[in-house]
């Protein structure tokens, strides 16, 4: 359910009904330069993109940064949460 331009009391009442029935609820409004958005998603799954970390083998490079893991921005993996 998406809701906008309603009073706070109406938004709260509709959100309670949606929450009780496991229905996702979104509401928001804009006032000139300012606005707000609220989402009650309850139990839900989503996917997050994570950058893979490449480990550097010892002795390949010199210097203090060799022990730090390096990020390879070309490789990412999707993690379901």
UniProtKB/TrEMBL annotation:
Tree of life domain: Eukaryota
Biased composition (Basic and acidic residues): 64-73
Region Disordered: start-end pairs: 57-81
GO molecular function: ubiquitin-like modifier activating enzyme activity
Database matches in InterPro entries: Ubiquitin-activating_enz
Protein name: SAE1 enzyme
Organism: Smutsornis africanus
């Amino acid at each position: 359910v998406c809701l906008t331009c309603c009073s706070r009391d109406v938004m709260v009442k509709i959100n309670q009904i949606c929450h009780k029935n496991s229905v996702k609820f979104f509401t928001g409004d804009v006032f000139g330069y300012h606005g707000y958005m609220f989402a009650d998603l309850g139990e839900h799954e989503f996917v997050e993109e994570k950058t893979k970390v490449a480990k550097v083998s010892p002795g390949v490079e010199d210097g203090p940064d060799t022990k730090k893991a390096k990020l390879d921005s070309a490789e990412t993996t999707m993690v379901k949460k």
